[in-house]
Design a protein that fits this description.
By secondary structure, this protein is of the alpha/beta class. It is built from 10 helices and 5 strands; from the N terminus they run E-H-E-H-E-H-E-H-E-H-H-H-H-H-H. A 5-stranded parallel beta sheet has the order 2-1-3-4-5, sandwiched between helices. Helix 2 packs parallel to helix 3, helix 3 packs parallel to helix 4 and helix 8 (172-179) packs across helix 9. The longest helix is centred in the C-terminal third of the chain and has 15 residues, at 183-197. It starts with a strand and ends in a 13-residue tail after the last helix.
């Protein structure tokens, strides 16, 4: 059973998401909150698998709520999925850096919404290639200071290779094809890298890959 917490200051949206989730046999909504502070208290009380958190809320916003969840070792099993009205923007980028596993636009179709919840609950949520490209473009436009290679010193060469491929938006099956290994071995490399880097999920691996300098975004060439 996938246990979900809904955190959104709009009652109508919470009701809609809850009605959709309650129809599924393998998903249970354990609680609802109308702001980030209440949401944090309920996360600690219920320890859900997924916390669906609105990015803009009163008292404590979604970015700060995500940061506090990611910083608490007792909440390591909680995967935060950010809810937004606007698609990928600066707020979503900051939420991913704070520790969010991914994000959903609120006008998502029901089938995709349910699929995303199940994928995030498995702990191997993957940023779509289109989102990864936008993340890369953000680094190209305004790169963050890198920490050279120090963050990745504990990784094996194969683990580094797997992390670099994750940063390109590849799934475990695609990583296996690229590295000429089995999907199980690819997943093992990714999971070990996540453990060594203390990354909560693949979204954080993407951020770490660029911040550490393992992957350097290419600036598109100007047309001749």
């Amino acid at each position: 059973m996938i246990r979900v917490l809904l955190v959104d200051d709009q009652p109508l949206l919470r009701s809609g998401f809850r009605a959709l989730l309650d129809l599924e046999d393998d998903i249970e909504v354990v609680a609802e909150a109308a702001d980030g502070q209440e949401g944090l208290a309920l996360v600690r009380e219920h320890l859900p698998d997924i916390a669906l958190i609105d990015i803009q809320m009163p008292v404590v916003d979604g970015i700060e709520a995500t940061r506090r969840i990611a910083a608490d070792p007792a909440l390591a099993g909680v995967h935060v999925v950010i809810l937004t009205n606007y698609g990928f923007d600066e707020h979503v980028f900051n939420a991913l850096r704070a520790g969010a596993a991914g994000f959903l636009v609120k006008d998502i179709v029901p089938e995709d919404f349910l699929h995303a919840v199940r994928v995030a609950a498995r702990g191997d949520a993957l940023l779509a290639p289109s989102i990864t490209r936008k993340l890369i473009n953000r680094y190209v436009a305004e790169p963050f200071p890198t920490s050279a290679d120090t963050a990745l010193e504990g990784l094996t060469n194969r683990e580094r290779e797997a992390v670099a491929l994750v940063a390109q938006g590849l799934s475990n099956d695609q990583i296996a094809d690229r590295m000429v290994i089995s999907p199980v071995t690819a997943k093992t490399h990714v999971n070990r890298a996540m453990a060594k880097l203390h990354a909560r999920d693949r979204a954080q691996l993407v951020v770490l890959a660029y911040e550490s300098g393992l992957v350097v975004p290419r600036v598109p060439r100007a047309p001749r």
